[in-house]
Each structure stands twice: as structure tokens, then as C-alpha cells.
Amino acid sequence: MLSNEENLRLIALSQDGDENAKSTLILEHSPLIKSIVRHYKNKGVEYEDLYQLGCIGFLKAIKNFSTQFNVRFSTYAVPMISGEIKRFLRDDGYIKISRSTKALAAKIAYFIRDYKAKYNESPTVELISNEFKIEPQEVVFAMDSAKFPISLYEKTDDENNLSILDKIADNNNGDESIDKILLKQIISSLDERDKKIIILRYYRDKTQSEVARVLNVSQVQISRLENKIIKKLKSEFGV
To answer: pLDDT above 70 covers what percent of the chain?
Structure first.
């Protein structure tokens, strides 16, 4: 397996158009791609076709990856790979998540709920993987398959009464932006403070005043921080 430093070097070369670097990354991460493809076998699609779809998703991950996301590349790539396959299967009416994956996703959901209640913050992917003794990629895959909800349409309590979708995307291209935004990746790219603000505001439906009390700051500070976070997200995703 490539070291993190070597991964980042090859990703940078790939983003600059180095085809050899892309080929090396695909070859070295082939076991990861295959492990995801195995979840979608017996859907009426040939294995090689599924693998090619996985490679397309992997190439998209290379293109869009940034060290600012503050996650390992493999963790970032998993939902991109599975997403590419799922879009194809969904469009052709094939997709069906296995019972074992659904069961794992449910267990993870309960663990996250209890962890939040106890520690007032979300567990990291690494912590979840240690708890269930599985690879971080499997955690991301299960969570992505379950589509843990964050409502893009939930109204906020600011003076304009906008939803998070209104803030991240222009009204004229909202549907297009929904397709492009991968919420888990957005949240994982934030630092711990900003991540907590987004989780409290959009996972736990807290008002800015309630979040301010949790973080021991003023409501005005939370408002400013939230606007800064949204501005950062819009900038990262070119919205």
C-alpha cells in the first residue's frame, strides 16, 4: 500500500494531467475498488462493468480530492466509488442494499446516537471502525448506503428563514447542486468546531442561540461563524 505522502504526491501529479500517476493510483487502490464492487454483485450487471464504474468514481475522487478535507484519500474515495455504481444501478432499477449492510448501518446509527448523547459530539470514522472492528472504508460505505439524513430543506432561524440548500446553492440551480453536493464529504472537510456547529444546527435542529450556549459563545458569534462556514463550502464546491 502507498504511504499517505506518496498518495498525495501521485494525486497532485494526476490532477496536473499525469496519466502514469493515475494508472499507478488505480493499480494500488484496486483492492479497495474491488471490495466495494463486491457489495453490488448479482445485480444483473457484469463484474467487469461494475469494476469500470468503480474506476470512474475513483478517478472523480482523484480529480476532486483536496488535503483541506482533512480525511484520508481512501475514506474520501469510498462514497465516490459506490456513488458512481449506485447511480448506474439506480437508473437501471438494479440497486438493492444487502441485509448485512443495512444491519451494520443500523448498528452504527445507534452507536452514533448514543455517543452524541453521552459526549455531545459525533464520533469519528476511526472511532466507529474501532468499535465495530471493521475497516474505516466499511464504515463509510455502510453510512453512505443508509443515507443518514441531513435535511437540505430544513429552515434555519436566521432573519431570512433560509434552508441550508438556499445558503449553499442559488435558487436557480438547486436541483443541480443537490446532485453535486456530497454531504458527508462536506462535513468531514470541516475542523472540529465548525463540524460541531453544522452537526448541532442541521443534525440536531438546534437554534443559533442553543448552539451558542453549548459552545459557550454569543449567538452573534455563532451567526458569524455559520455564515463563514457556508461561504467556505460555497467556495470549495464552486457555487
So the answer is: 73
